[in-house]
Design goal:
Elements lengths: L1 H18 L6 H18 L2 H7 L3 H18 L10 H13 L2 H25 L4 H26 L18 H4 L6 H8 L1 H19 L6 H18 L20 E2 H16 L4 E6 L5 E2 L3 H17 L6 E9 L2 E8 L6 H6 L8 H6 L7 H11 L3 E6 L5 E8 L7
Length: about 400
């Protein structure tokens, strides 16, 4: 949206200047407007933005500013009638990209205007005071924008306490200490229960196709996930008598080979154009005593991180093996990696390391924390091995189910 607004304003301004005959370099100015439209069309192509990855927003800002400065250079330099466009660029950057982008752009505008003003200063063609004021307008304008933003924001908001969640989620103790943004945090939190609801509805549908009634534990867990979503959204739950406890069932079991194989296929279909995703199992079947849905949730969170923080052209490898009556699942990537300090805090809720924040990747820092919680509840252990810039290796270990073939 910022880029479209910037391009539209530049093209409109150039059209007005050309229509009024206000530019001696009309042909070149028309080329600048055409280049702005062509660059915008190119930057709207998803393949182009994917190719530049996290640098795409910075490239977009740079191209927009370069074209505006080019238009200024053809219409009077720092004293051009189009000068307000640079201030509009700063305002749009702050509105759509945030204060950091606006500060970066203000510095770039200052450098560009100084370059445009240098020949005029040397020639002595313009009084210094009006020129000096134009040079420092971007900084003054940015200060005014930030002051207005602070005044509109008022006093700092109090941290939003998370709503109570069902005991089955077991996330309340850690999440209660984290500050929450009601609009953004809820969207992240809803991803996990939604994925689990999808799994349980598939299981129930499969039972129906076989002519079997749904299992009580499937219905109970499905209800817990719906309750979790209601609690996150702050919706009141209807009061009703407690349901009878379902009869005890055999120990749940999960086949890591089948589960990881299906996840690898799904992620390969979704992210295969960006990354190479490999899966290797040393056994045809590896059974562990764990809830398959909880294990799937944990693996999904780990894989989401691997895909998110691995640049295009990288690789994610998934390996499953058995060593001395212990099942191992190792998920490694060629992404940004973690420092020793980041690894120590990786399982804290709402923690995001500096590398993740620098990349600008979406996320709220719940993925590894939730995976750790789910695995601990099911007898699993998770550990990390990484060096900054050399990827991350996540090792998940379970005791092999007794009596299972290995």
């Amino acid at each position: 949206m910022r880029g479209l607004a910037s391009t539209a304003l530049l093209a409109l301004s150039v059209t007005v200047v050309l229509a009024t005959g206000g530019a001696a370099e009309g042909g070149r100015l028309a080329l600048v407007a055409g280049a702005a439209v062509a660059a915008r069309a190119l930057l709207l192509v998803p393949a182009v933005t994917r190719a530049f990855g996290t640098f795409a927003p910075a490239l977009d800002l740079g191209v927009s500013l370069a074209l505006v400065l080019a238009a200024l250079s053809l219409t009077g330099g720092a004293m051009s009638d189009l000068y307000p466009l640079v201030l509009v660029e700063i305002a749009l950057a702050r509105l759509f990209e945030g204060p950091g982008a606006a500060r970066f752009l203000a510095l770039a505008v200052l450098a560009g205007v100084l370059a445009l003003a240098a020949p005029v200063v040397i020639a002595g063609a313009v009084p210094l005071l009006p020129l000096a004021l134009r040079i420092f307008w971007p900084a003054a304008f940015l200060v005014a924008l930030e002051a207005a933003g602070d005044a509109a924001g008022g006093a700092p908001a109090k941290p939003v306490e998370p709503a109570p969640v069902p005991a089955s989620a077991r996330m309340e103790p850690r999440m209660a200490s984290a500050s929450r943004d009601a609009r953004q945090e809820i969207l992240h939190d809803l991803k996990s229960p939604l994925s689990v609801i999808r799994v349980y509805t598939d299981l129930i549908a499969e039972s129906a196709r076989r002519g079997e009634p749904p299992r009580p534990d499937h219905l109970s867990n499905l209800e817990n996930e719906v309750a979790l979503m209601e609690a996150m959204a702050g919706a009141p739950r209807p009061t009703r008598p407690p349901a009878p406890r379902p009869p005890s069932r055999p120990t749940p079991r999960a086949d890591l080979v089948s589960l990881l194989g299906s996840l690898a296929d799904a992620y390969r279909a979704t992210h295969g154009e960006k990354l190479r995703i490999e899966f290797l199992a040393e056994e045809p079947e590896i059974l562990v005593a764990a809830d398959p849905v909880a294990v799937q949730r944990a693996f999904r969170n780990v894989l989401e991180n691997a895909v998110k923080y691995t640049p295009p052209g990288g690789q994610v490898r998934i390996r499953a093996s058995v060593v001395s009556q212990h099942a191992f699942a190792v998920i490694s990537d060629t992404g940004v990696g973690m420092t020793a300090e980041e690894q120590k805090r990786a399982f804290e809720y709402a923690y995001r390391g500096p590398a993740a924040q620098t990349l600008g990747a979406e996320g709220r820092g719940f993925g590894l924390a939730l995976a750790h919680e789910l695995l601990e509840q099911n007898g699993g252990k998770i550990s990390l091995l990484s060096e900054p810039g050399h990827g991350l290796e996540v090792t998940i270990m379970f005791p092999v189910l007794k009596g299972a073939r290995v």
